[in-house]
Amino acid sequence: EGAPGFFRGNGASVARIVPYAALHYMAYEEYRRWIVNGIPGVGTGPTLDLIAGSFAGGTAVLFTYPLDLVRTKLAYQVVGSQNLNVQGLVTGEQVYKGIKDCFSKTYKEAGIKGLYRGVAPSLYGIFPYAGLKFYFYEKMKSHVPKERKKDIATKLACGSVAGLLGQTFTYPLDVVRRQMQVQRLSASNSHEMKGTYDTLVMIVQRHGWKQLFSGLSLNYLKVVPSVAIGFTVYDMMKAYLRVPS
């Protein structure tokens, strides 16, 4: 496929990340405010960020999951001859022609349920991941000297570590989610995986527990800078818009 093959599904990814990021940070601020106002005894600090971040992540996933499913399906399929077939893909021909076509065919196959295939492990993963991400970020910032808190380099460093730790702890569920999303495209699956636990057991039995962390190092290259930049821009925009912390 050449260089364009590396960007397959990128259109759906871009279409998803804009509303996802907006919902994630907006929901985080709202949940944080609701918790502080509704449960005065909870106080402020990293624990509050853990709770608010978890619910914010779940909210963002629920509203944007179909786009994540489409992105994964478009990225997984292979165009070309049977010799290019990888990971048990049924055919070398293009299964989906684009975002709209993927949405349409997925909906015709299984309705709304089909568009949310694999959402359970996504939620299981995003709750701890989003919560831990905000927790580690705010926890690290709390140990930064006051005169360094506004430094961009400091924010990037805190965001990088937060993304790395959050991704490491929750990555196996991300592997399970993607396996469930693309199972209909795979000829190697002898039976349909009915849930998160079923898929998790199947992966371990067939490939061993190390498969649950397959691709983690490569994922670091994407997630760590993405989270670092996201938190940095988020903090800078809060300061610019004078949003109270």
TrEMBL record:
Q: Which keywords fit this entry according to its UniProt record?
A: Membrane, Repeat, Transmembrane, Transmembrane helix, Transport
Name one cellular component (GO) term.
mitochondrial inner membrane
What PROSITE patterns does the entry give? SOLCAR
Catalyses which reaction? ADP(in) + ATP(out) = ADP(out) + ATP(in)
A biological process from GO: mitochondrial ATP transmembrane transport
In the bilayer, the protein is annotated as: Multi-pass membrane protein
UniProt lists the family membership as follows: Belongs to the mitochondrial carrier (TC 2.A.29) family.
Please report a single Pfam family linked to this protein.
Mito_carr
Name of the protein in question:
Mitochondrial substrate carrier family protein B-like
Its subcellular locations are: Membrane
Instruction: Please give the coiled-coil regions recorded for this protein.
Output: none
Q: Which gene encodes it?
A: LOC107773910
- Superkingdom of origin: Eukaryota
Question: Which residues form the Solcar repeats?
Answer: 1-34, 44-143, 150-240
A GO molecular function term, named singly, is:
coenzyme A transmembrane transporter activity
Spell out the Gene3D superfamilies in the cross-references: Mitochondrial carrier domain
